[in-house]
From TrEMBL:
Disordered, as annotated region: 1-20, 92-113
Keywords: Membrane, Transmembrane, Transmembrane helix
Transmembrane segments: 32-52, 64-83
Originating species: Micromonospora coerulea
Record protein name field: DNA-binding transcriptional regulator of glucitol operon
Low complexity: bias regions: 104-113
Keyword Transmembrane: yes
Length: 161
């Protein structure tokens, strides 16, 4: 019986798609092997600590009942994060392959649909006098800085003005 086209994922049968050996090779890089090993070590360790707390709780330590629940929750969280990262890696590269970015020409202006991160612009909210006159405090501070620059060995307390 052929698969139902409404719920069939043809992307899993394309070369390098999720579920194929080419797609799974991305999860066998040295970085991913370290992640797999870390996940197994953490889950086994957290479940072992949970069992240890169960035995302590059975011997009469009532505080250990909370820890007996907490450690398996930690193990579940590690599995959740690992699974989410695996799915993200497998789905992210498939989306990147299916829609390659169009090449940008040298003189083309960005289109209205181009999304990007823009740097914030600092706006001076203090009005600057139109005649170019400076604020009195600012002028005094600039004179002080000029004096400090002219007298490198002087202390700020030596300033005459």
């Amino acid at each position: 019986m052929p698969p139902n086209p409404t719920d069939y994922d043809a992307a899993s049968e394309t070369a390098g798609g999720p579920g194929t050996l080419d797609g799974m090779k991305r999860l066998w890089t040295p970085g991913w092997i370290a992640r797999h090993v870390a996940m197994v070590v953490l889950v086994v360790g957290f479940l072992g600590l949970g069992w240890w707390q169960v035995t302590r709780a059975a011997s009469g330590n009532t505080l250990s009942f909370g820890y007996a629940i907490e450690w398996p929750v930690f193990a579940g969280f590690v599995i959740f994060v690992w699974w989410r990262e695996v799915r993200h890696t497998l789905r992210g590269t498939r989306g990147d392959r299916s829609s390659p970015a169009p090449p940008a020409s040298a003189g083309s202006a960005p289109t209205a649909t181009t999304l990007g991160v823009r740097r914030p612009v600092r706006v001076n909210r203090v009005p600057v006098p139109a005649d170019g006159a400076q604020d009195g405090d600012l002028a005094a501070y600039n004179r002080y800085l000029t004096w400090l620059n002219a007298n490198p060995g002087a202390k700020p307390g030596d300033y005459p003005g």
